[in-house]
Amino acid sequence: RDCDAVAFVARCFVNDDITHVEGRIDPLADLEIIETELMLADLESLEKRVNNLDKRAKTGDKESANTLRLVKLALEELNAGRPARVAKISEDDEKAWRMLQLLTAKPTLYVCNVDEGAAGTGNEMSAAVAERAKRDDAESVVISAQIESEIAMLDAAERAEFLETLGLEEPGLNRMIREAFKLLGLQSYFTCGPKETRAWTIPVGATAPQAAGVIHTDFEKGFIRAETIAYEDYVKFGGESGARDAGKLRQEGKEYVVQDGDVMNFRFNV
């Protein structure tokens, strides 16, 4: 329940050697079963809280009264056979709503597990899942677990050759990561030094001091400026030195909103 999002993985391939517990291949029916299980889990979790919240609310505890109101709102949807995410929540209630940790209220990504032949384009079953995702205001991604397991056993050069033979530009895992980042409103920036290059994950819209704080809180507290190079410029001019010579290294202050892929070096006071 502490997770930030849920990925629904649906079987979208036919293989007689891999049995299905229901004896049929129907990804939409599988998704209904998964969601029903999560809804039942949410129902059980909420029903256990009602009595205690009700008792505290009657003593004048405003926080308990507010939580009870949200619990009842969620129960109304769940008892009607709908996931909690369809409930209309005001901006003021969003934090308390998240504190309920409802599985069916979390952002959702639909992952279509297809066979090798459909890894690039998908198939009829993955198209049906994509329609279901659209109905739920969610995203879907096609991936072949079989291909991904084979890729994991290869070195970098062999991976590129293997993907080329399959007519794929990149592993499906890359697409899944991008969709997950988009779903969660995340992006990355880089720090590059003589010993390592590292990616740091930050929310979209984070300022330079906030980005620095992901490395260490002292970086944010003592932030002076950020030496910044756009990713495309860093690659185009062969690194920091080339980008500096080309005038592509910028000095950014506290108000700068970090862009995806920025290469940054922070100056700060201890």
Question: What does this 3D model show about the protein?
Answer:
There is one protein chain. The chain is of the alpha/beta class and 270 residues long. It folds into 2 domains: 184 residues, Obg-related GTPase Ych/YyaF, coiled-coil domain (DNA polymerase, domain 1, Orthogonal Bundle), CATH 1.10.150; 83 residues, Beta-grasp domain (Ubiquitin-like (UB roll)). It has 11 helices and 8 strands. Strand 2, helix 4 and strand 3 form a beta-alpha-beta unit. Helix 1 packs antiparallel against helix 2. The chain is flat.
Compact overview of the structure:
The protein is of the alpha/beta class.
Tally of distinct domains:
2
Largest sheet: 3 strands, parallel
CATH class of the largest domain: Mainly Alpha
In angstroms, what is the radius of gyration?
24 Å
The percentage helix is 40-55%
Count of helical regions: 11
The fraction of residues assigned to DSSP E strands is: 15-25%
CATH superfamily of the largest domain: Obg-related GTPase Ych/YyaF, coiled-coil domain
CATH architecture classification name of the largest domain: Orthogonal Bundle
Widest beta sheet: strand line-up = 1-2-3
SSE inventory with pairings:
Elements: E1 6-11, H1 27-58, H2 62-79, H3 94-99, E2 108-113, H4 124-135, E3 139-143, H5 145-151, H6 156-166, H7 172-184, E4 186-192, E5 197-203, H8 208-215, H9 217-221, E6 223-229, H10 231-236, H11 240-245, E7 250-252, E8 263-268
Parallel strand pairs: 1-2, 2-3
Antiparallel strand pairs: 4-5, 6-7, 6-8
Helix pairs in contact: 1-2
